[in-house]
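Protein modeling request. Please complete all fields; requests missing the sequence field cannot be processed.
Requester role: graduate student
Desired output: 3D structure, token encoding
Chains: 1
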Amino acid sequence: MSIFATLWEGLLNGISNVWSLAIIVIPIIIVLEIAKDNSILDKWSHKLHPPLKHLGLSENAVFPILVAFIFGLTYGSGVIISYVKEGKLSDYEVRAVGSSMALAHALIEDTLLFWRVGIPIWILLLPRLVIAYALVWVLNRIHAGRFLPSSVLAKFTFFNRKRVNL
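Delivered output (166 residues):
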């Protein structure tokens, strides 16, 4: 096979792969922009607050989590930064939201992309959501002093840090 035939085959495979991604990502972006413009995400965050309330999260903390779950880390981080600047999140909420975002972000996009190559949806979603929820539960217990005594917590800088002003 000549070099040109190999390059041509590589180009065609690349275009096919980009098309496979585009038919998933572009509609998601369009739907999410419509949802954002119509305040649908605000309504969802209000409805998702009750199950997260017992984790010590206010309704303000639910919105950045929801944005990160749907849009990904970039948008979620942007929302957290603006909420911190506006004073809408406590120090604990910043840590809890950031930790859950690190484990479970871009759930819709990632799930659809991996589902397209044959991985079952429940294998993609369930572990990420359960682990993120469990992590925030543990952080809430630690923050409330019900998991470890404060003398032990004082040794860990993660729980001792003051908020960084942005």
